[in-house]
Amino acid sequence: MAEITLQDIIQPENLVYEKSKLLTEKPFHYCPGCGHGTVHRIIAEVLEELGVDDRTIGVSPVGCAVMAYDYFDVDFVEAAHGRAPACATGIKRVWPDKVVFSYQGDGDLAAIGTCETIHTCNRGENITMIFVNNGIYGMTGGQMAPTTLVGMKTATTPYGRMPQWPDGTPNNGFPLQITQLLAQLPGTRYVTRQAVFSAAAVRNCKKAIKKAFQNQIENKNGVNFVEIVSNCNSNWKMSAVDANKWLQDNMLPVYPLGDLKDNFELIKK
Amino acid sequence: MAKFRGAIVVDIERCKGCGVCITACPCKVIELAKEVNGKGYNYAFMANPEACIGCASCGITCPDGVIKVYKKAL
Ligand SMILES: Cc1ncc(C[n+]2csc(CCOP(=O)(O)OP(=O)(O)O)c2C)c(N)n1
Ligand code: SF4
Ligand code: SF4
Ligand code: SF4
Ligand SMILES: [Mg+2]
User: Fold this and answer.
1) B51 — contact with chain A (CB < 8 Å)?
2) Domain tally, chain A
3) Is A83 a domain residue?
4) Is B40 left (phi over 0), alpha (psi -120 to 50) or beta?
């Protein structure tokens, strides 16, 4: 048998993976290795596979993903800081047949936008919410977020986040378990926590995001909420590969992966 | 002998040299080049092409979606 060459393999009929056609040709502005890019890719693949790109409207946040609208070949609105779920609510109520999703970081969703997040989930809007939790304000240079881990050094907690002073008086508070909190609300249908640091994590995350969109398409109510525990290698001040390792060792014990709620039922751990 | 051979094509000018694909590859196929692309990044390339099985782990974890994966049955 003749030796097989790379040329034989690299043929259109042998193609098994390429990025979704729903992503525009514009290169992501994200730092090398940033999980935002991976999450964008997954969303685009899911929308393409579901064939709903012509009736999808995304709502981008304020944060590193502010310009998400540049990267998807679907309609988009850019909301004021923290207001993406309120904006998505309005769009979905006016156009119930559209597939509507919000995309937010942890500062956007769990700090300035906590009010909109909680009330959107409590109203049980029929939307998909994507929440990228990197435990920090990435865009503005790495300040503490409500989700920052205890002991984690940020620009505003240079000695590490300290929930209380040694004498017990309040200081920086505790990592906000926003996803757990939202799972308690009767308006959330599907609540899950995922990640994108490995191929296996990406596969699971894609299944979850697909389900979060399918639920919206098949039903009339109930928020479908997907948290993605992600990295911010630039502000964590490590390489992308080290950040993905650090994430597994430090973020996942506090933010464990898996479904928290399915079909309005809390999942007993 | 392996039943499949794979190959990847990296869009060199869009690669950011983050190395995430290297960690993702179960077969140690990928390394970062000593040379840099137009943006100054050491880009990913198939250093060990015979080892590629076309599993696409690299493609689906690359944050920038710059890898195309091919797979051919032998
Ligand atoms: C009303 C308002 N307040 C504050 C800011 C500054 N600001 C921009 S992005 C951001 C936080 C972003 O963090 P996060 O949502 O976690 O997104 P990341 O960049 O980490 O993905 C802040 C505080 C702003 N743009 N507008
Ligand atoms: S600052 Fe952090 S969140 Fe923003 S693009 Fe860079 S790595 Fe990603
Ligand atoms: S993961 Fe993508 S961007 Fe990063 S080094 Fe590999 S090919 Fe380049
Ligand atoms: S397709 Fe699989 S074996 Fe080939 S380079 Fe990518 S991860 Fe490695
Ligand atoms: Mg953040």
Assistant:
1) no
2) 1
3) yes
4) left
Residue in A with minimal Cα distance to B17: A32
Residues of A in contact with B14 (CB under 8 A): 27
Class assignment of domain B4-67?
Answer: alpha beta
Q: CATH code at A137? A: 3.40.50.970
Buried b (16+ CB within 10 A) or exposed e, A91-124: bbeeeeebbbbbbbbbbbbbbbbbebbbebbebb
pLDDT, tens only, A135-180 = 999 999 999 999 999 999 999 999 999 999 999 999 999 999 999 9
In a domain, A159, yes or no: yes
* Host domain of residue A204: 28-266
B-chain CB neighbours of A197 within 8 Å are 61
Could you report the per-residue pLDDT of A200-250, keeping only the tens digit for each?
Answer: 999 999 999 999 999 999 999 999 999 999 999 999 999 999 999 999 999
What is the least distance, in Å, from the CA of B69 to any CA of chain A? 5
0.95 surpassed by complex ipTM = yes
Q: Is residue A1 part of a domain?
A: no
What pTM did the predictor assign? 0.98
Nearest residue by C-alpha to atom 7 in ligand 2 = A232
One-letter amino acid at A226 equals V
